[in-house]
Amino acid sequence: MKGFLISGALAALLTILGTPILIRILAKRGYGQFIRDDGPTTHHVKHGTPTMGGIVLIFATVLSYFVSHFITGIEISASAILILTLVITLGIVGLADDWRKVSKQRSLGLNAKQKLFGQALAAAAFAIAGIHFRDHDGLTPISLHLSTVRDTSLVLGSFLVVIWVIFMVLGTSNGVNLTDGLDGLATGAAIMTFLAFVLIGVWEFGQSCAVTQIAKCYAVRDPLDVAVIAAALAGSCAGFLWWNASPARIFMGDVGSLALGGAIAGIAITLRTELLLIALGGLFVLITLSVIIQTGYFKLSGGKRVFRMAPLQHHFELLGWGEVTIVIRFWILAGLSVATGLGLFYAQWVVS
User: Fold this and answer.
1) How many CB atoms lie within 10 A of CB 91?
2) What tens digit of pLDDT does each residue of 110-157 get?
């Protein structure tokens, strides 16, 4: 319990105090957001707002995790190192994208192929390393089984696991990236998802096969330590939200959204809750689907649109909804999705 409190509280404190420093540095150098002309006109006032705030999110998360372990004296786990490495590498991909935008003063950074290649490379390295590093019980950070709310009997094998992990990381990191279009929207939704992972990790540890030999026990390598990372991420997002809420003083940029999305995918994979992520990250899934539907229908119908604009949050902006109204209502949807995911997780324990 001490580890959760230290990592979460310290991460929140670091982002609350550290973000204004980063804002001043970025503003002094002119590293501001470039706003597209084809987006909602209300966004034009955000032009020049400092971006790349995800730097402080990643720094606070990593530092808080290691400080909590230094204070508690608990051993650092392989699962945690792999997740943090995934977060950092995806953050580097996002930073390259953000840097190209601010340096060239345009809304386009890396092209799609470059960005996807960087994400896929980070995900593949995470997957390949994750099926190694067995503990004394023979468990690896990433299972070779497909998981729903726990491992199923379906064995994917090493090759398919790597492909599956790449798919999950790409989907989730880009899903958070698409959601990060309104002040505080992605940050607030991410907090709820990370808090859910804290609860799941603690529960899995309490019912771990290494602790108890009951029939329903969970065979997960490092659930408690993964929960400590989730607490650090939730704290980092909470502190950052103080400055990212409307009207935002800073945006997280791709360096933040790709890293947070990778963290969500990495935690779901290591906790053996892969398909449960559809519910826990319901808002990210919904917004990603809106882009897929819009793009697919546009191509098939010869230029017609389902939504006024995609991602979905911008459709409601063009309908006349206020930004704060959209964010709060989407947070409600995110909360309901997380509650559904936790309900499904617990229901499986009760029913099985």
Assistant:
1) 30
2) 888 999 999 999 999 999 999 999 988 889 999 999 999 999 999 999
Whole-structure pTM value: 0.94
> For 195-248, what is each residue's pLDDT tens digit?
999 999 999 998 988 777 777 889 999 999 999 999 999 999 999 999 999 899
Angle between helices 253-270 and 157-179 (to 10 degrees): 140
Q: Positive or negative CA dihedral for 117, 119, 125, 127?
A: negative
348 assigned to some structural domain: no
Q: Is residue 308 part of a domain?
A: no
For residue 66, is it within any domain? yes
Both tokens of 58, joined, read 């990643």
| Sequence-distant (≥ 6) Cβ neighbours of residue 352 within 8 angstroms | 216
Q: Count up the domains in the chain and report the number.
A: 1
Residue 16 belongs to domain spanning: 2-279
Q: Does residue 264 belong to any structural domain of this protein?
A: yes
Query: CA 349 to CA 352: how far, in whole Å?
Result: 6
Task: Count the helix, strand and coil residues of the chain and give each as a percent rounded to the nearest 5.
Answer: 70, 5, 30
Beta bridge partners of residue 147, listed in sequence order: 151
Query: Can you read off the two tokens belonging to residue 258?
Result: 């790709």
Contact in structure between 75 and 97 (CB atoms under 8 Å): no
* Residue found under tokens 């204004």: 20
